[in-house]
Design a protein that fits this description.
Layout: H1 8-20, E1 27-29, H2 43-59, E2 65-70, H3 72-84, H4 90-93, E3 97-101, H5 122-133, H6 152-158, E4 164-169, H7 175-187, E5 192-197, H8 204-211, H9 215-232, E6 240-242
Parallel strand pairs: 1-6, 2-3, 2-6, 3-4, 4-5
Length: about 240
């Protein structure tokens, strides 16, 4: 599921919904990053930074960028924000908004626990997380595992101009860590919009698009995401959705 090709239908549907919501000329940049075990940190973060720099070079104005990602992709978006905030020119490089679907906030933690409903398995996830980190020391590094960052000032510097949006399921493995991160961001002074969908599982907007029975059910997550983006960024402006 890590390939951008897997998300093609999801992204095309999102473009259509963005246009319906009043966005004049939305565009999507989808990053094809290397998966484990073929590569490990920092390769994937370096690729994410290169992709972001490429988009910034094209549009010049980062405030028109909305970062987006689900699961490990959302992890990389959080790592990207922490990375960008370390620059002395971070304020000029931060995106306008960040939309995070079921982020894998902390790679290895006892709080990532199996649930009766979710399809993810905590033990398998921790195996992949260790492969990505490469060393036990890296698992404590915020740029590897963003949930390890407890520095409120760092998160405030890393916040997109209009803040964050989190969307996740109440029954998913990552739920406890996502809630902890949301609480930390709010304590840090960041603007945070949240949609915890009752009874839903990991990355439910993506899952619903492929498995739900009706059109309304298939696009519900995308429409909810689009509504939160439109509340944060003026739809009259052009939008680059970086996934």
């Amino acid at each position: 599921m890590g390939s951008s090709y897997f998300y093609l239908e999801f992204l095309l549907a999102w473009l259509t919904i963005l246009r319906e919501a009043g966005w004049r000329n939305p565009a999507v940049f989808a990053l094809e990053y290397t998966l484990v075990p073929d590569e490990k940190y920092p390769t994937q973060l370096d690729q994410t930074v290169a992709g972001y720099d490429h988009v910034c070079h094209i549009i010049k104005n980062p405030s028109r960028i909305c970062l987006a990602g689900d699961s490990a992709g959302a992890t990389l978006q959080l790592s990207l924000l922490l990375h960008l905030s370390k620059s002395s020119h971070s304020g000029k490089r931060l995106p306008g908004f960040a939309t995070l679907i079921s982020p894998w906030a902390t790679l290895v933690t006892p709080k990532n626990r199996n649930t009766p409903s979710d399809y993810l398995n905590a033990d398998s996830l921790h195996l992949y997380g260790r492969q990505y980190a490469g060393t036990a020391t890296n698992l404590k590094e915020p740029l590897v595992s963003p949930g390890m960052c407890k520095d409120r000032e760092w998160w405030m510097r890393a916040s997109p101009l209009e803040g964050f949006c989190f969307m996740y399921g109440s029954e998913e493995v990552f739920g406890p860590e996502v809630r902890d991160l949301i609480a930390l961001l709010r304590r840090s002074g960041c603007a945070v919009r949240v949609r915890e969908e009752p009874g839903q599982v990991h990355a439910w907007p993506v899952v619903s698009l492929f498995l739900a029975e009706t059109q309304a059910e298939r696009t519900k997550g995308l429409r909810d995401l689009t509504k939160m983006i439109s509340q944060a960024i003026n739809p009259e402006h052009e939008l680059i959705d970086g996934v």
